[in-house]
Amino acid sequence: MVDALSCVRWKRHQDALIELSEHGIVLIVEESGCLQAKVYLQRELFTKYEYGAQGRPRFGISLGLLVDCLNTFSSPGHSNTIEIKYPGPDMELLLKSVDTLNSCIYSEIRTRIPETVAWDYNFEQAGSAPLTFTVKSAALKEAIDDLEWPGSSVQISLHNSPPCVTFRGEGHGDLQIDFMYYANTDLLLAFHCDTEVSYGYKYKFLKATTANIPGNVVRENRGSKLTIGRGGMLKVQHLVSVSKALAPQVESAGYQPPSRIAYIEFFVKPEESSD
Amino acid sequence: MKFKAFLTENGVNLLEKRFLPAFEKMGKNCYLFLTKEHLFFLHNLLNGDGVQCIAQFRKDVLFDDYRISSQNEDRIAFSLDVSLLYRAVKSSVSICTEFSGGLASNRLQIKLVKKLPPNCTQPMPFLTFETKGYKSAVIQDVPISKPLSRSQVIELQTALDSAQDLPPTLVQVQDPNQLQNFVDHMKHVGDVLNVTISKYGDLQVQISTTLIRLGSEFQRLLVIGEKSQAPVEDRNLSAQSRSERAMARGDAQSVQVSVKHFSKSLQCQLTKPDSAFYGIAPQGACLTVIFQFMIPGTRQTDKSISLHCRLPVLDPGSN
């Protein structure tokens, strides 16, 4: 869970909005009206999920504190089952480790009443068909890391003949990274585009979408799906494994315990076009 | 003043593998206090802040042929840089192993000398490590401070005596790794730790800021000293409520210490003790941690080695 939450933590101190429902937990982080991130933790990820509220409670909480706090619950060699409860007597979020008989870790985190409706990122499809491509997470992260060098905004363009995605930065140097669909289906896993589009995005917001993906997730190297919606809004989706603790039985070669997935979505507004 | 001794193999192992790595974490400089029967490593004993660390070894644990004489009742004290001492011991070990041919003559001698270092006009004191092999000898000089005067030694001895007081209630923590792991992560959350110890055998370690309260509680630990039974009606309450009620009854004490200090004291785990006991001094004067070493293969306390830390308290403890 820390992995999933760390993906959306691009600053040391960050505030988040949590929404609870019978489907699971959604955590939303936003910056300057241009970047929004959502982490979906479905109820199936939890060993037990009891929900008894009217409507969907929402509250604000410090993401940094939550992640630091969750980290204290994990100790190597011990199984860590955490019980999360809301609300506490003073509307706090309560956490407690429930494994060992004679010792426990507990925490109460203050929450806030969330500000009026967070900027609703109404993501709409661009045209008659979605404009989307899926690229290996590690390759995407590497490409975006490399684009730091020109020191400019990044132009993302989708071309349909030949089918490819271009990332371009023009600053104190030019850098262009092409993902060709047919050339390397290992990197670019899927591609749908019927109209050519091109939009620019501020580097720091684009970087936030991949910068904090934890190492083990990058190593898993699943696909990250990028979609360009109406007006150039960019949606970046990652999958993060929230796998169970080591199973007691020996894993025979090839057997993968079913891993559970948390969904992370980023929404990035395009830069105002100059022409 | 004269001091000369031979470090035994056991002594070298204890220092190199266990104690010096821990002392290095406790502070850059420490006092070495040698008496007729004992050797002490003392950190922060004379300055007010910082974690006090007191280690005591009976001479035969570390040395053979221990000879000491001084005009101050055969006591000698000086300060030195722990990492320099550690380095000297480590390289002496590698030299000894190189020269070893099963001969007992490769003994590591340690003595107090005065030498004239290069580019100096005054002779300076050193603690010298000498290994005599078959054909050659290796000498390492660890610079030390001027040995303490009579009055300074008295001051040191007095501080040492008052640091030996035992808190009335001590609880035993058997799994310090859990505690260490917790404190390592807690460092990011806040600076001040609340430590509550009860006569029922509960140890609670908690950080409280305006935004978060984060704590770890250990229950039913072994108690040495004043103890009592936890009341049954408290059993299902939260950790916080239980400790508040215990304090109201006078069965528990709470003090605030710095997270950094607490974390530092946990570094004494490097000495590989068998367990650690936590207690709060009367009137909440300090938080005491006593490390217990057993005679290997037995359940008896090894009284020839002792190690304990005293952590300064930030606020007057509540009682």
TrEMBL record, chain A:
The keyword DNA repair appears for this protein: yes
Keyword set, alphabetical order: DNA damage, DNA repair, Nucleus
Signal peptide range: none
Top-rank lineage group of the source organism: Eukaryota
Gene Ontology cellular-component annotations: checkpoint clamp complex
Compartment(s): Nucleus
UniProt cross-references to Pfam families, sorted A to Z: Rad1 (PF02144)
Main localization category: nucleus
Gene Ontology BP term (one): DNA damage checkpoint signaling
PANTHER family xrefs: CELL CYCLE CHECKPOINT PROTEIN RAD1
Family as reported in the entry's similarity comment: Belongs to the rad1 family.
Protein name: Cell cycle checkpoint protein RAD1
Source organism (scientific name): Arabis nemorensis
From TrEMBL, chain B:
Keyword terms of this UniProt record: Nucleus
One Pfam family here: Hus1
GO BP terms in the entry: double-strand break repair via homologous recombination; meiotic DNA integrity checkpoint signaling; mitotic DNA replication checkpoint signaling; mitotic intra-S DNA damage checkpoint signaling; nucleotide-excision repair; telomere maintenance
UniProt keyword Cytoplasm, yes or no: no
Gene3D superfamilies in alphabetical order: 3.70.10.10
Entries under InterPro entries matching the protein: HUS1 (IPR016580), HUS1/Mec3 (IPR007150)
Protein name: Checkpoint protein
Species in which this protein is naturally found: Arabis nemorensis
